[in-house]
Design goal:
about 65% helix
Length: about 180
């Protein structure tokens, strides 16, 4: 059961603020990749696309002398921590199931290791899907955060993802009814 759609998230002013700050085109592309990877791996497409859409809402822009400083970002970044908290609060406000909101927030928290000491994490399948989707869309020096997309195109792509999920859920529930 879906409690909150991607479009409802997309329409919220807080989501708009932070998605635009961190790169709307990147967030949507990562959500699209996450849908495909989730289907492949048998992971909840609902949770994967929500975590992927919101994965960078904790970004802060790191500038030095008026220029984006990627090294400063890599050295001081904690966007996954801040983003997990923001996303969790937003999802709860929108009426998302509390357990699912937590699972989404943890996937956001663990989508990158940029803020962690050296070492490897043992990720769960949902967390792997979100991290993999983010990696596929990354560009050198953080360029993926600066790709542009019109708000109309963003809405169309979000609606298309919601439709794909609804179609998948209908298909799955129909199969279960006749099994």
């Amino acid at each position: 059961m879906r409690y909150v759609t991607l479009e409802e998230i997309f329409d919220h002013p807080i989501a708009q603020k932070y998605l635009n700050r961190s790169g709307m085109a990147h967030a949507i592309a990562v959500a699209e990749y996450a849908f495909d990877f989730a289907v492949e791996k048998g992971v909840s497409v609902d949770l994967a696309t929500k975590a992927a859409l919101l994965h960078d809402v904790g970004h802060y822009t790191w500038y030095r002398d008026g220029e984006w400083d990627y090294d400063l970002y890599k050295e001081n970044d904690i966007h996954a921590i801040k983003g997990a908290s923001r996303a969790h609060k937003l999802l709860i406000r929108l009426g998302e199931d509390r357990h699912q909101a937590k699972e989404i927030a943890v996937a956001i928290l663990l989508h990158t290791d940029s803020y962690l000491p050296q070492g490897e994490l043992m990720l769960k399948p949902l967390q792997e899907v979100v991290a993999q989707a983010d990696e596929v869309d990354e560009e050198y020096g953080g360029g993926h955060h600066y790709r542009k997309i019109s708000s109309n195109e963003a809405r169309i792509r979000i609606q298309k993802l919601d439709k794909k999920m609804n179609d998948l859920f209908k298909q799955t529930s129909t199969k279960q009814q006749f099994a």
